[in-house]
Amino acid sequence: xxxxxxxxxxxxxxxxxxxxxxxxxxxxxxxxxxxxxxxxxxxxxxxxxxxxxxxxxxxxxxxxxxxxxxxxxxxxxxxxxxxxxxxxxxxxxxxxxxxxxxxxxxxxxxxxxxxxxxxxxxxxxxxxxxxxxxxxxxxxxxxxxxxxxxxxxxxxxxxxxxxxxxxxxxxxxxxxxxxxxxxxxxxxxxxxxxxxxxxxxxxxxxxxxxxxxxxxxxxxxxxxxxxxxxxxxxxxxxxxxxxxxxxxxxxxxxxxxxxxxxxxxxxxxxxxxxxxxxxxxxxxxxxxxxxxxxxxxxxxxxxx
Length: 304
Ligand code: NAI
Fold this sequence. Notes:
Elements: E1 9-12, H1 18-29, E2 33-37, H2 51-62, E3 67-70, H3 77-91, E4 96-98, H4 114-142, E5 145-150, H5 153-156, H6 163-183, E6 188-196, H7 208-213, H8 217-227, E7 236-240, E8 243-247, H9 264-269, H10 271-274, H11 286-300
Parallel strand pairs: 1-2, 1-4, 2-3, 4-5, 5-6, 6-7
Antiparallel strand pairs: 7-8
The site of 1,4-dihydronicotinamide adenine dinucleotide has 33 residues, from helix 1, helix 4 and strand 6.
């Protein structure tokens, strides 16, 4: 089976460089028409230029594909809405959105300016919200949509100096969790990619030998898996150096404490059991979690 996107339209944000460029090229090579979005600033978000996006469009066209360049800043909803309108005017549908645009403003939390916290959050989290909002009703009407969020191990597990970035990258997973539920009836699937690649963003962080393993193409292939017709839904796929894995948020079985034991001291006394991850479970949604907690209580009280 070869995965193809003939007749489909994709928007890739931040597609002028690095991973986004590889995503746009991979989608186009498999038949998608692509909106190559890029604000064209530096890795810290300063400046703007349409050259990078135009270059990617040229590469796609030279290979016989179709693409348009777009310079919207994902943090500005009006610009993003105009981008969606541009795609609709040209091709009449939007099947895929890859929220990839990003910047870094690393500093330890004590030295971090709140403006740098807000800016990073604006681009990664609000940017993903804006782009998703701009295509959401279009996808609902089409009864088809595939959305990829870009998260990071820095968000899921933490990384020194990246409190702003990590919070925003975990935020997009929260956004995904609810959109998966709201998009299900309209055949909209949302997944998250946690990439690793040698790009200008990671230039200063990686050693030379490691960089050679961390090419962008194997990551773009993982993105393809997350946005094709038979894509999974609600999946966090890690991809770097040609290695692939899946991350899930799990909950311990937990326990109910009787009324006279619902105190901080008793919770501490039962910590080993409460935090024991034997038999841990992935919750489908918030409702399933609430039901589980209430059922533990009902069983403890002998009414279930
Ligand atoms: P990159 O710096 O090479 O590319 C990011 C692109 O986003 C740039 O072309 C930039 O102009 C564009 N961009 C930045 N702000 C924008 C805005 N407001 N509107 C539109 N475009 C904007 O970075 P890279 O490494 O390719 O990162 C891509 C995504 O992958 C980011 O979301 C990043 O956080 C994420 N990521 C990357 C990792 C890596 O190892 N490279 C690791 C984990 C996550």
